[in-house]
Amino acid sequence: MDNPRRYGKAPFRTAVIHGGPGAAGEMRPVAEALAGDYGILEPLQTAVTVDGQVRELKVLLEQGGATPPVLLVGHSWGAWLAWIFAARHPELVRKLVLVGSGPFESRYAEGIMKTRLARLDERERREARRLLAELNEQKNGGFDTLARFGRLISKADSYDPLPGGGGAEEGGGQDVYNGVWPEADSLRRSGRLLRLGETIRCPVLAIHGDYDPHPAAGVEEPLARVIGDFKFIRLKGCGHTPWLERQAIGAFYEILRKELAAGA
Predict the structure, then answer these.
(1) Which of 5, 15, 33, 201 has the most CB within a 10 Å radius?
(2) Are 261 and 177 in contact (CB under 8 A)?
(3) What is the value of pTM for the model shown?
(4) Average pLDDT over all residues of the chain
């Protein structure tokens, strides 16, 4: 497996960062859609610690021939990873685009799973609870457990999904999730995740669907306090993954292309 994947032609000034943790390959459609005009890198995170993923991302950008400073487009957990990376390597990042980011303060996160489960039927809710318990207990369910849970969550997270959908590819997804997510959640609960913004020097743009169960206020309000050059865009008729949403995909790519053109 090529890692990082390259789309388009050099210079590679943009990288798309997948979520999960462990959802490698989910941003392939975004990279492919933008590659007609720009060079795009898609690094696939395999490290099982937060620090490991930050170090790995730096190596993958270098190996992929990135031309720094780069634009990082991070989705969900990938938004947090891009945020942490920009705080530790401000000289390497020209702008952050955070797509469907998780909230940056724990008080905003309390109702996310409740919202998701309420959007499923009773059978789906039982299965989701069982799979989540397996993930939280770090049982050896392999990629299949994370994939099945991801499909249910994707259904709950979507407003008007396009046919076919998308998702992660087979790999070590659960090991990555089990290793990274507890650390990431601890960063948020301690307040350290948000405080990293004090060392971020680049502009930050957050794109958030109005149907995303991750509360928009949990991204917009904290980041507005710590980032001087911050902009928030709310997409109508959009869930957690804009490029899979019928009513939001056009606006989403229009925004991204504008950002890429500005740095070309």
Answers:
(1) 15
(2) no
(3) 0.93
(4) 92
